[in-house]
Structures are given as structure tokens and as C-alpha cells.
Design brief:
The protein is built from 5 helices and 2 strands, in the order H-H-H-E-E-H-H. With 186 residues, it is an all-alpha fold. It has a single domain, classed as Up-down Bundle (Cytochrome Bc1 Complex, Chain C), CATH 1.20.810. The structure holds protoporphyrin IX containing FE (HEM) (2 copies). One of its GO terms (cellular component) is plasma membrane.
Length: 186
């Protein structure tokens, strides 16, 4: 996918990686808080605000996906550590590709879900995004199931990805984690 293989991730790539990780964490925390907020007259406004923030975080992930992809095509990203076993390299690349795929598809499904429910997305409370599909309750139900399934898949993949990075740091004691956290360079 990449044209070149630089020897490191630069500050922009590291910044984007951690910004997106934080936004994804925020999207989960916001929707869990939304789920645990009762639908009562005094919490109704808060509930709406929480889901709106969830959508803002998710749409920002979607926009940053394109920034990351374009920048990856322009600058390239470092090849996986050639010292690793071929199976480990394959697994790491597959997980990275699946993470990229989910950063695209999960927010798109969320956006379609909002449209199908009949609620247009007001990005940052300012821009009304176009509806991706017409209002349709049955479709909204299916999209909600798909959105939940993909979000669970993302959680599992991020878990695997982070566990792999920590294994490199604590067990293999190599420089993989330091590529994304340069202050850890030994
Ligand atoms: C990083 C991106 C995103 C993640 C990780 C994420 C995650 C989740 C999770 C875990 C749920 C709860 C699923 C359930 O229990 O049914 C959810 C629900 C939902 N999400 Fe997202 N989402 C993302 C992006 C978006 C976007 C971009 C939108 C819309 C623009 C969106 C709209 C919704 C809506 C409308 C619900 C249903 C809330 C309800 O009525 O219960 N999501 N999301
Ligand atoms: C605690 C959480 C996380 C840790 C410790 C972590 C760590 C790392 C490390 C060390 C790398 C570099 C791997 C290498 O050079 O071989 C990396 C790359 C990557 N990470 Fe994460 N990460 C985390 C969360 C996330 C999240 C939430 C996402 C997005 C869903 C993500 C997506 C990616 C992608 C796509 C790459 C590959 C970039 C490329 O080379 O194109 N990471 N991560």
C-alpha cells in the first residue's frame, strides 16, 4: 500500500495515531455514559448532548482516517521490524489493515444509522451533514446491530494490538513500542 518505507514514524504520524486512539476511547466512554443516563425530563438534554458528542468524535475519526491514509501514501510508514518472525509480521500487518478498515467503516455505519433513524448529524453543532440513507426504522435496527458488532470487533482488535505492543516492550524488550512512544527509546 505504501510507496516508501521511512525508518520511523514522524511527529505528525505519532500525533495522529494517539489523537485517533483518544477519540475512539472518548466515543466508547460517551456512548456508555449515554446508555447509563436515564431517559427522564431532567436528563433528556444531557442524553442528547452525549450522543451528539459521540457522533462528533466518530466523524472526526472518519476525517482523520483520510488524512492518515493520504499521508501514509505520500510519506509511507516504517516496515514492521524485520527481526520479527514472518508470522508475527503478517499478524501485525493484518491487524493494522483491519484497524484502518474499521476506522473507515464503523463511523460510516454510525452515520448511516443516524440517517436511518431520522436524525441528521450536526457536526460540532454547526455543520449539518447530508443524510446517507432515507429514514427507515427497520434499516436503523439492522445498522445498530452492525455498528455494535463492528465496535466490539474494534475493541478486540485494539486489545490484541495493544497487548502485542506491550509484549514487545516488556517481554521481547525491542524498540516496537518506542516507534509510537519515542520517549521510551532505550
Ligand atoms: C470511532 C467511531 C465509533 C465508535 C467506536 C462507536 C461505538 C459505538 C458503540 C459501542 C455504540 C453502542 C452500541 C450498542 O450498544 O447498541 C454506539 C452506538 C451508536 N453510535 Fe457509534 N461509534 C462510532 C462512531 C459513530 C458515528 C460517526 C455515529 C454517527 C454519526 C455514531 C452513531 C451512533 C448511534 C446513533 C448509536 C446508537 C445510540 C442508541 O440509540 O443507543 N457512532 N456507537
Ligand atoms: C493502548 C493503545 C495502543 C498502543 C499501545 C499502540 C501502539 C502502536 C505501535 C507501537 C505501533 C507501531 C507498530 C510498528 O511500528 O510495528 C502502532 C501502529 C499502529 N496503530 Fe496503534 N496503538 C494503540 C492504539 C491504537 C488504536 C486505538 C488504533 C486505531 C484503531 C491504532 C492503530 C494503529 C495503526 C493503523 C498502526 C499502523 C500504522 C502504519 O504503520 O500504517 N492503534 N500502534
Amino acid at each position: 500500500m505504501t510507496k516508501k518505507s521511512p525508518s520511523n514514524y514522524n511527529a505528525l504520524q505519532i500525533g495522529l495515531h494517539w489523537l485517533v486512539a483518544l477519540l475512539i476511547l472518548a466515543a466508547f466512554i460517551l456512548v456508555w455514559t449515554f446508555d447509563n443516563t436515564p431517559l427522564a425530563p431532567d436528563t433528556f438534554k444531557l442524553k442528547l448532548q452525549l450522543i451528539a458528542w459521540h457522533k462528533w468524535a466518530g466523524i472526526t475519526v472518519l476525517m482523520l482516517f483520510f488524512v492518515r491514509l493520504i499521508y501514509k501514501l505520500i510519506r509511507g510508514t516504517p516496515a514492521i521490524d524485520p527481526e520479527l518472525k514472518p508470522i508475527e509480521r503478517k499478524m501485525a500487518v493484518s491487524v493494522h489493515h483491519l484497524l484502518y478498515l474499521l476506522m473507515l467503516v464503523l463511523p460510516m455505519v454510525g452515520w448511516m444509522l443516524s440517517s436511518a433513524k431520522g436524525y441528521p448529524v450536526m457536526l460540532y453543532g454547526v455543520w449539518q451533514m447530508p443524510d446517507l440513507v432515507a429514514k427507515d426504522e427497520a434499516l436503523a435496527h439492522t445498522l445498530k446491530e452492525i455498528h455494535e458488532l463492528l465496535a466490539n470487533g474494534l475493541m478486540v482488535l485494539v486489545g490484541l494490538h495493544a497487548a502485542g505492543a506491550l509484549k514487545h516492550y516488556f517481554i521481547d524488550k525491542d524498540g516496537t513500542l518506542a516507534r509510537m512512544l519515542p520517549f521510551l527509546k532505550r
